[in-house]
Amino acid sequence: MKRYFQTYRRRSNMALFLVLGGILAAVGVFGLFFMQPIAWGIAAIAVGVLLAVLPQFAVFSRCGFRGADFVYRRAGLPRRLPAKEIGAAVLCIYDEYRQWKGFSPVTFQGQNGPVTLPALVLLRRSDAGIEDELDLCDTRTNTCAVFRKDVVVSAPLDFDLLRELYESDFAGRFYISEYIYELYKPGFEQLFDGDGRVVVYDRIPKSVKSRLKK
Questions:
Q1: Model-level pTM?
Q2: DSSP-based three-state secondary structure for 21
Q3: What is residue 115's three-state secondary structure?
């Protein structure tokens, strides 16, 4: 079974928690000699070690298919969900929190310059009402905020994972933002080949588009 990482910038995030945890643990060691009671120093060391180690389970979380089930991690804990119980897949811009910069889209270097990384957000929800809220879902973070109660997992889009999802028992729709669809159109056309389950959405609310058509 091929496994796919659920986060993109793993090394920088790993280093961040290791440094923060190391600093706190060092303060604890210093406190053993100069602080009273020494319990404060022991507590700082313990918290520092936990800060350095525990987040790594989330940073290096991976997902994939195991038979008819989709396996993933949530808050570092392993989860399993039958593919047929996934209601929808939203493909949008992958963004991550950058220190001092807030949430920003992630890019990688392509042949003609920086290229925006796409995201795959899987939802339990499958009703038609999803389309009424997609105008807000241009990025991974926004999509997870809009459908926060229904999110199964969000991850950088790997076309191998997308193909496995398409060929699984998943029976929902693929909602692809217009920007990402145009950016990766040849890949989507080759994979989906005109499948009616593919819906391309934009930033205009569905209710507004309905009025414009009248």
A1: 0.85
A2: helix
A3: strand
